[in-house]
Amino acid sequence: EAAVAAARAAAAMAEAAVGCAGLSPGPGAELAAVIGATVPTGFELTAAAEVQEKLGSASRISRDRGKIYFEVPADSLPQVHRLRSVDNLFVVVQEFKDYQFRESKEDALKDLEDLVKKLPWTNPLKVWELNNSLKKRKTKRKKQNLPSAASKEKLNDDREEGADQKDAVEQEDCAQNAASVEPAIGQETEETQGGASQNGEEDNEQSDAKEDTQAGCESESQASDSQAGEGEAKVLKFRVTCNRAGDKHSFTSNEAARDFGGAVQEHFQWKADMTNFDVEVLLNIHNSEVVVGIALTEESLHRRNITHFGPTTLRSTLAYGMLRLCDPQPTDIIVDPMCGTGAIPIEGATEWPSCYHIAGDNNPQAVKRAANNISSLLRKNENKESSSSLGIPLDIIQWDICNLPLRTGSVDIVVSDMPFGKRIGSKKKNWDLYPACLMEMGRICTPGTGRAVLLTQDKKCFAKALSRMGHIWRKAHTVWVNVGGLHAAVYLLKRTWERAEEKRSFW
Question: What domains are there in the chain, each with its CATH number?
Fold first, then answer.
């Protein structure tokens, strides 16, 4: 028994050591990888449930909110990219759960430099190469259908204002933001609040939750230039992105990215390039937790359905999390009465095609954008080689949220991103709008089995409206989320058996 116990302990230690290194032996000699994924803050458990369901892997939720980690065989990478709840993916090189930073800035940065030589880079880079080859095959297949740069520019002109265009670009896509900057070693993203997520939401209520700045390093740039002049074959270009959260560090993200990047360049003899890089090395520091990784996505996976943006376009990943929260069943009728550009119903129709989805909005411009997004999705489906679909189970209509053209008790689920009262509507108007919405949603929802999932940042107004509508709606669950730096909430409501009143006097 003692021998068995010792063997088990040794196996557990080996497993832990392998896990920390980011890679472990899969079945036989198969390469396996620990994948890190950024997800909408607050929906970590939803993402973990999807990974378990679709990949059969258990996930670990990071102390740094908005991230999960799970292990898969490297040949499962295509399925990993098809996950609906994750924004960005990276392969973990090594994770330090309790990294001890030295007090002086010079010593702490020197330790980060020295760390580069000690990290197990080989297998993570194999995973990156495999991911790259999959990406190239996919790009080759889709090349004919990709819009030109001019048409992309035209799509951007479809947005409300220049400010909305700015808001729609989030910090993960920092490569574009660095276009006018001289080649440098690193890029930094600092977080001053430990609870802030690195995935600023594209709901665009506020895009200035975090600031991205470029880490410049003249000496390393000169070194890379001289190296490029030698005419070496196949010199990889790279950049380092540092995401730092916590107030007990003696250095900035800028400095960490610069020094760590200089050591990476020296170790691999790669060329530093902030905009046209092949490899993006990630240095994630959250208090005493340090994770080094290699990015597997060039842009966020939530950019999958929307081509025509509005002032408050919701992320597809957040829309998926909201839909999953209400547990749609086959033949359910799902309504988004304030659909905006259609992120929620489009995600719903894509992922739950056995349900029937109805989208509506009172703004004709929003309905037009949503219709264009639906058309884009239909064209994309037609271009898929394996697709035999004739359409999607989704209709859109312009209507008044307080007077929906739907029969009483005819709807199973209501899912909607309610106006925050910042870009759309106002806080003052919400005091009348919210109770009217809840009353009308209660009327169309099936008593006893109907449910609603509603997102809002105007929590005080919503709580007041819900207390007035307590006879028809019961709050079952609340998920706290970060939407563009705003502290918002997703409420899961259950419809009671009470009959909804038709009157319009709420207070």
Answer: 30-136+235-301 (3.30.2130.30), 316-495 (3.40.50.150)
